[in-house]
Amino acid sequence: MRRPGKLSLILSYAILVLGVLFSLYPIWFAFLAALRPGGRLFTLNLAGMFLPTQVTWENFRIMLFEKPFPVWIKNSLFIASLTTIACVSLSTSGAFAFSRFRFVGREAGLILFLAIQAFPGVLALVPIALILTRLGLYGSPWGLILAYSTGTLVFCTWNLKGYFDTIPIDLEEAGMIDGCGPIQSFIRIALPLARPALATTALFGFMAGWNEYVMASVLLAGQEPRYTLPIALAQMANDLNVPWGQYAAGALLVSIPVVLLFLWLQKYLESGLTMGGVKG
Amino acid sequence: MVRGLPMVKRIRIALVALILLLGLAQRLSLARSLPVDADEPVYTWAASYYAGLMARGEWGQIPQYAYTLEHPAFVKLLYGLALWAVGAEGPPDQPFAPPQGHLAWGDDAARLGRLAVNRYVSVLFGALQVLAVTLVNPLSGLLLAVHTMAAKYTSEIYLEAVPAFAITVAILACGRALRRADGRASGWLWLSAALLGLAAASKYNYAAVGLVMLPFVIWQQRRHPSIILLYGLLALAVFFVLDPTLWPDPLGRLRDSLFFHTRYTQSAEVARYDYPWYQPLLWMSGAGAWHPGQFWFPFDLLTFLLSLVGLPFLLRQNRLYFAWLVWGWLLLFVWPTKWPQYTLIVTPAQCLSVGAIAQAAAERYRLRFDQETWERIAYYLPDREFWIRPSRGLVIAVIALVVLYVVGYVAVRVERSRQTRGWATYTAAEGEISSDMVTALALDGAGRVWVGTRSGITLFEGDQVTFLYANNSPLSDNRVTALALDSAGRMWIGTESGVDVVDGEEWSAFSAADMGLPEARVRALAADPRGLLWVGTRRGVAVWDGAAWRPFSPLQAGLQSETVLALTVDGEGRVWMGTERGLAVLDMSGSQPTWLTYTAGTPGLASASTLALVTDPQGRVWAGTGGGGLCRFAQEAWECFRTGNSELPWNTVVALTVDDQGRVWSAAEMPNQPGGAVAAFDGAQWQIYTPRNSGLVTGEVSAILQDRQGRFWFATGGSGLIRFEPP
Questions:
Q1: Pairwise CB contact (< 8 Å): A199 & B388
Q2: Are B234 and B242 spatial neighbours (Cβ–Cβ below 8 Å)?
Q3: Can you say whether the dihedral through the CA atoms of B590, B594, B598, B602 is positive or negative?
Q4: Residues B617 and B623 sit within 8 Å (Cβ to Cβ)
Q5: Which of A3, A136, A92, A76 is nearest to B285 (CA)?
Q6: Among B196, B566, B607, B637, which residue carries the largest CB count within 10 Å?
Q7: In whole angstroms, what separates CA B447 from the centre of its chain?
Q8: Which chain A residue shows the shortest CA-CA distance from B396?
Q9: Min CA distance, A121 vs chain B (Å)?
Q10: CB B432 within 8 A of CB B426
């Protein structure tokens, strides 16, 4: 294979560096805004738009210790964790069934999943709210968990199904010869091999429950003690004033658990995403 | 102790501890947050009266106190003991709660104050009840721990917690005693009798449901009638001993107490609610709808439905518990009064019925807390290698973040407590001030602090507080807007309908007609060292010279606007009048009064809208402006301190005062949203007080005063009165 020339290498790296700067700058901008005193989003000092020329930790102090941040994070963690558990447990077993078994309605089911995935989630908000009201779960975190889980289930099932398709069935057949039943071959053989995909599913499930704002703001309307982080941050703004510094500090703090989860699962994420996307 | 136990027992202990903790935490959370419920004021009054009797050593009066005689006294006495311990006693001459109540249904939980200790007494017995049921069946205990109706009424100052605990343990102990194959009486049987008596001494309906034990006891001890008799006598003896209200006249008092209930069922109050016979079924949906967001697991309805499914299992496993559930339901349907708290007589039995399903399943599938069961379950679980373990660095990072947060929290709390030292807030909700909308402050010759509000005047004299209203004093209008003390020691009170003057015990009132003004909605008062009293209103200014009023209006030269918001007299005797359109200065030292005006465009004056005026000991006038900051007039020139050239937090200054050290205190407000700060300026240094760095609960201060003890008083427009004692 021909080695790329110096010029094309420099060009490639320059484009990559620019791309990285372009993606990282919003986060850096938020960090600068969080450190800037006076709650200002912008500054007339050009250097201040790239470097921290004025530093105060007041915004972080207010968000962590004056706002009910622990309550918000507890609510978000509760909803996101249960959404993750529900997604992983339901989609794993469903994906295994779609991958391994042949039954009536299998193909139709897969196509139906695809159709549901294409449907805009926001349009489904009103029917979801009606259903939850009938179930007595409107305004309750359980209703939100149900909504998030069902919304994320489709993608997770597809992704896992694709991953299970890549696992040779011979392994399970060998286990069955040794006395494994279907459930044991699923738990003891297929699941451990599907760890990368499970990690991806867990991360998607967590982010679905952690970052989502529209559904949470509608389904938890008026329930201030149950507000999740996105709703709590949004309600800090009013018609006359937006505390940009506190917003930025809150946004950075909100991203910490997702970053930690990513660090925990990073070893498996890449293979989970790519392998699951191979087969349809 | 736990370490030496087998794994199975350790797991069981951990499970019991977790369920107990859950029940305790839920009840504590409710005790702190639930608003005052309907009967809480009544029982707290009775308890505080008992506490007073105990504190004064009048123990002999306790049996004579017959308030709420329809209920036995034991729980009320227990509450009284708790209040005595914390020093909360009721007035000795008021055995019955006042009609309007010191507390009302729906009041914030904070209004309970020290009385709230009895909520924690309820919580204690509610948690003990959870523990008792958990020891019998962990699933039942878990359901009871989170049951919303049970949690609610065992975290409020009702009579439910103690008898619910007593009757639960009584029936459980009786069940234990009945299991003896030899049929001999055991300690459990006598415990059951004693607790039945305790339940009866706490609330009758729990004793009524406890009677379900009698047929079982009689059947077991049918060959030993003396045991049966002793059982009954023990229960009765405990009942009598623990209910002192029966002592003066046992049969008479008992008859009155029981017959009260039969009369009450026909009363107008019960008829008003007109609950149907099946109302207890509707209470089964729980209390979640009454207090949204307060209950962690509102599964009452599910518990009730499952308890119906569990009935055949319960009958097979324990007939006493089955009878408890059925008898309890019968009582609930038959008894005419259908209050929701009555359902607590069957709640533990319902939970045990659900637990019976789990127990049957465990027996069917041989699930026990043992190694063999664990191995059978583990057979279907993934291996240990399946789980994705976080790296050590990640674990350290998470722990470090948590530790950092905890350390930061502690540091912030410590700093906050240091910043709020010396600050106190008086609010109308606590009965410390007549209204939270405080408009004016003044100090009289005797050192009393006069606090003018939208609902009368509050006088602070040491620890004494006096409320002056139009209906209990000569005050002409409760809507007080300004206060001033003149050179003769008379207190002038500006209101929305004129001016009152208090000279010792004598009051006089002046209306708009007296002052010669079209209306007399007073906005400012200023006392002149020459003995004059200046009144600024929405329709001009008037001055009292001791004998007559002289009005000034914008038709005369000088005043830019009819509405005069601020007044002060400078060191040269000139009267400064602040309006929204400018400042007018009236000099009456010459033969003719002369006017000087400062409007927008005056050099050095950033804004002519004047909201506050004060004269410092050097005779200089300070003006608080709307958007122009704090301005000082000295040597015929204006100098303004604004956000751009000083540490003044905002440019709208609404209140001013000068302290004994010559520092100018100003209240600055945010221009177009709630909030503000107080700034103290000594000519060189600024000291800023905000709700974030001090005990100032709100930044919107409408008046500032320093008293003779050097304390500062801040009037707010909705958060009451704040007092600051500098270190």
A1: yes
A2: no
A3: negative
A4: no
A5: A136
A6: B196
A7: 32
A8: A260
A9: 27
A10: yes
Q: Which of B266, B250, B257, B148 is nearest to B202 (CA)?
A: B257
If you measure CA to CA, which chain B residue comes closest to A198?
B388
Q: How far is CA B79 from CA B144, B154, B563, in A?
A: 24, 13, 57
- B1 pLDDT more than 70: no
Which strands make up the sheet holding B533-537, listed edge to edge? B522-527, B533-537, B540-544, B549-552
Helix (H) or strand (E) holding B594: strand B594-598
Most confident of B256-270, B364-378, B410-424, B522-536: B522-536
Short-list B17, B14, B19, CA closest to B297: B19
Mutate to test the interface with B, among A65, A89, A195, A265 (most CBs of B within 10 A): A65
Among B123, B122, B210, B208, smallest CA distance to B168 is for: B210
* A238/B394 touch (CB, cutoff 8 Å), yes or no: no
- Position A228: which residue type? T
Counting residues of chain A whose pLDDT is more than 70, the rounded percentage is 94
Beta-carbon pairs below 8 A across chains A and B: 51
Q: Measured between alpha carbons, how far is residue B60 from residues B86, B239, B250 in Å?
A: 22, 19, 16
pLDDT at B456: 93
What confidence tens digit (pLDDT) does each residue in B666-709 have?
999 987 777 889 999 998 999 999 888 888 887 689 999 999 99
- Which regions of B528-651 does DSSP assign to beta strands (E)? 533-537, 540-544, 549-552, 566-569, 575-579, 582-587, 594-598, 610-615, 621-625, 630-634, 637-641
Both tokens of A150, joined, read 């069902």
**Rounded to whole angstroms, how far apart are CA atoms B24 and B726?**
41
> What's the CA gap between B196 and B208, in Å, rounded?
10
Q: Which residues contact B249 (CB under 8 A, 6 or more apart)?
A: none
Q: Cα separation of B415 and B66, whole Å?
A: 50
Query: Is A183 within 8 Å of B380 when comparing Cβ atoms?
Result: yes
pLDDT of A124 above 90: no
What percent of chain B stands above pLDDT 70?
94
Q: What is the pTM of this model?
A: 0.63
What is the amino acid identity at position A277?
A: G
Contact B583, B597 (CB under 8 A): yes
Geometric angle at alpha carbon B380, from B375 and B383, rounded to 5°: 85
Cβ-based contacts of B391 with chain A (< 8 Å): 263-264
pLDDT at A273 over 60: no
State the helix-helix crossing angle for B187-202 and B74-86, rounded to 10 degrees: 80
Indicate whether this complex's ipTM tops 0.85.
no
Report chain B residues whose CB lies below 8 A from the CB of A62: 692
Strands B456-461 and B464-468: antiparallel
DSSP-based three-state secondary structure for B156: coil
The C-alpha angle B408, B411, B414, rounded to 5 degrees, equals 150
Is the separation of the CB atoms in B178 and B317 below 8 Å? no
> In the structure encoding, which two tokens stand for residue B225, read together?
């009638």
**Distance of alpha carbon B677 from alpha carbon B686, whole angstroms:** 12
In whole angstroms, give the CA distance from residue B143 to residue B138: 9
Cα–Cα separations (whole angstroms), residue A100 to A199, B383, B519: 21, 22, 90
Subunit contact A195:B391, Cβ cutoff 8 A: no
